[in-house]
Design goal:
It contains 13 helices and 4 strands. With about 300 residues, it is mainly alpha-helical. The chain has 2 domains: about 25-175; about 195-300, no CATH class. The strands form 2 sheets. A two-stranded antiparallel ribbon has the order 1-2. It starts with a helix and ends in a 9-residue tail after the last helix.
């Protein structure tokens, strides 16, 4: 009996040690870090709007220049608890003004803070992980030009076990993958490959469309087999629509319809954009027309997801 207890204790210690090791924060490789360089703010502004940074980190209802004041504070109420968007302004005391480019890249692509803590995936780093080093460098350069906003945002409001950040390391090992979700256009689509590739990058990477339009499993990971097939709203109020080329609904839109919607906010039925999509559409309207066309080309040539 004593031997059995000792064996169980040893196994428990080994399991705990393994879990501790596997849950450790991860970082970009030294090789990738060496290739990073601070880029061009002008190019970074386009990445900023594609990534929707202001939608979460600017003050609610902000317009115009106030969209560039990234003091955080937006409350995201979810089934896991309340997440509060942090200050990511250029403030050295309260924002990211004291970060290095490597700190920024680790946060964006690995969900790891400069202090070595795991970020919660309410910050969509599982999508940003697909961003290029050049875009990260450009975005960082642009964010350095933005106003410093003093004051830290409130803490998240999370109960046990979701308040244990270390456990997110295991979650990231399951769901953080920089590989493309869709490997190639669906067969039979006459689409320009370069245009489609650009659309895939924008949708799967900085645009992080899948974070809302794809359902999640019990652990909060995206169900990639149902990519962009619609999902309950992250806040639990309503449903985010299917934007795959299914028959009827969004699937009946042409690529030109989609591109025009992203530019103007008007559907083919002359309805206007509403809800949280308002912010997304306003961001997309700031991109070059070629990028909106690329997004449309991608969405028209991905697998359709059958209605649940």
């Amino acid at each position: 009996m004593k031997k059995a207890v000792v064996v169980l204790f040893v196994l428990a210690v080994i399991a705990a040690g393994a879990a501790w090791g596997l849950s450790a924060p991860t970082y970009i490789s030294d090789q990738d870090a060496a290739t990073l360089k601070v880029g061009e703010p002008v190019s970074g502004e386009l990445v900023f709007w594609a990534g929707g940074c202001a939608s979460c980190h600017a003050e609610k209802g902000a317009k115009g220049e106030d969209l560039l004041k990234l003091g955080g504070g937006l409350r995201l109420e979810t089934p896991f608890g309340v997440f509060v968007a942090p200050n990511i302004s250029s403030s050295e005391a309260d924002g990211i003004g004291g970060w290095s480019l490597a700190d920024f890249a680790n946060a964006m692509t690995h969900g790891t803070s400069p202090e070595g803590e795991n970020y919660y995936p309410a910050f969509p780093y599982t999508s940003y992980a697909r961003m290029t080093g050049d875009d990260l460098g450009d975005l960082f350069a642009f964010m350095k030009t933005l106003p410093a906003v003093e004051g830290k945002a409130a803490d998240h409001e999370l109960g046990f076990p979701f308040n244990i950040r270390r456990g997110l390391g295991l979650w990231k090992r399951m769901f953080l993958d920089p590989a493309p979700v869709i490997g190639s256009p669906v067969s039979g689509n006459d689409v320009d490959q370069a245009l489609w590739d650009r659309g895939r990058y924008l949708v799967e990477g900085p645009g992080h469309c899948g974070e809302c339009h794809t359902p999640r499993d019990f652990a909060g990971g995206l169900e990639l087999s149902k990519w962009l097939g619609g999902a309950p709203a992250p806040t639990g109020d309503g449903r985010i629509p299917d934007i795959t080329p299914v028959d009827g609904g969004f699937g009946s839109w042409s690529a030109a319809d989609i591109a025009y919607y992203l530019e103007s906010g008007f559907t083919p039925e002359y309805d206007s954009v509403g809800g949280e999509m308002v912010h997304v559409q306003e961001n997309m309207a700031r991109l070059p027309a070629s990028d909106r066309e690329a997004i449309a080309a991608y969405l028209k040539a991905i697998p359709a997801v059958a209605a649940n």
